[in-house]
Design a protein that fits this description.
The structure holds 2 protein chains of 2 kinds. By secondary structure, chain A is mainly beta. Chain A is built from no helices and 11 strands. In chain A, the strands form 2 sheets. In chain A, strands 2, 4, 5, 6, 9, 10 and 11 form a 7-stranded mixed β-sheet that branches. A 4-stranded antiparallel β-sheet of chain A has the order 1-3-8-7, with no helix packed on it. Chain B contains no helices and 11 strands. In chain B, strands 2, 4, 5, 6, 9, 10 and 11 form a 7-stranded mixed β-sheet that branches. In chain B, strands 1-3-8-7 form a 4-stranded antiparallel β-sheet, with no helix packed on it. The chains are: A mainly beta, B mainly beta.
């Protein structure tokens, strides 16, 4: 099994802040990594696929980078609608999600 | 509009069986894998398994193999997740999602399953 570890678990930030979330894989997954946003009571929403490709309709303030075992999701300037929980997902070997990072209001 | 519509919430007793559904529309149902994801109360997402409705090829996470059964009926564009004997620990929200090259691009609204005596 490939394990995915996200950090931090919680991030307290303000509107306008630059936000960076890290995801580490226990084995190399090349660029087979996606990022999702989930709001309370809602299904997750795909933001980024193949580590750095932006899903259609997703604002350009979201970006992804990395390959191998270390990946990053960056929100360049946090907006009120961005307070949510973010998950990474590897899909190199079957699939596994990270444990999530909650972005909350400072 | 491309969408997945899941069956409604269920309340069951331990030991009972259950089959929940996920109906796809607005796209070629047989051309994309459908996956199931568990989210226990207050917890993260867990990948359970996927099925290709075109030929019913099915893959399970090692954590869920033998615990659930994933199936599909392509004639009615519907995928299923079923349990033969529920446990209290199966209490969770279950999502189906369309798999596009490994990622989940379209999600159902979720089905809440509560197992309690």
């Amino acid at each position: 099994d490939i394990q995915m570890t996200q950090s931090p678990s919680t991030l307290s930030v303000s509107v306008g802040d630059r936000v960076t979330i890290t995801c580490r894989a226990s084995h190399s997954i090349s660029s087979w990594l996606a990022w999702y946003q989930q709001k309370p009571g809602k299904a997750p929403k795909l933001l980024i696929y193949k580590a750095s490709s932006l899903e259609s309709g997703v604002p350009s303030r979201f970006s992804g980078s990395g390959s191998g075992t270390e990946f990053t999701l960056t929100i360049s300037s946090l907006q009120p609608d961005d307070f949510a929980t973010y998950y990474c997902q590897q899909y190199n070997s079957y699939s596994t999600f990270g444990q999530g990072t909650k972005v909350e209001i400072k | 509009e491309v969408q997945l519509v899941q069956s409604g919430a269920e309340v069951k007793k331990p030991g009972e069986s259950l089959k929940i559904s996920c109906k796809g529309s607005g796209y070629s149902f047989t051309s994309y894998w459908i996956g199931w994801v568990r989210q226990m109360p207050g917890k993260g997402l867990e990948w359970m398994g996927i099925i290709y409705p075109g030929d019913s090829d099915t893959r399970y996470s090692p954590s869920f193999r033998g615990q659930v059964t994933i199936s599909a009926d392509k004639s009615i564009s519907t995928a299923y997740l079923q349990w033969s004997s529920l446990k209290a620990s199966d209490t969770a929200m279950y999502y189906c999602a369309r798999s596009h090259s490994g990622t989940f691009d379209i999600w159902g609204q979720g089905t809440m399953v509560t197992v309690s005596s």
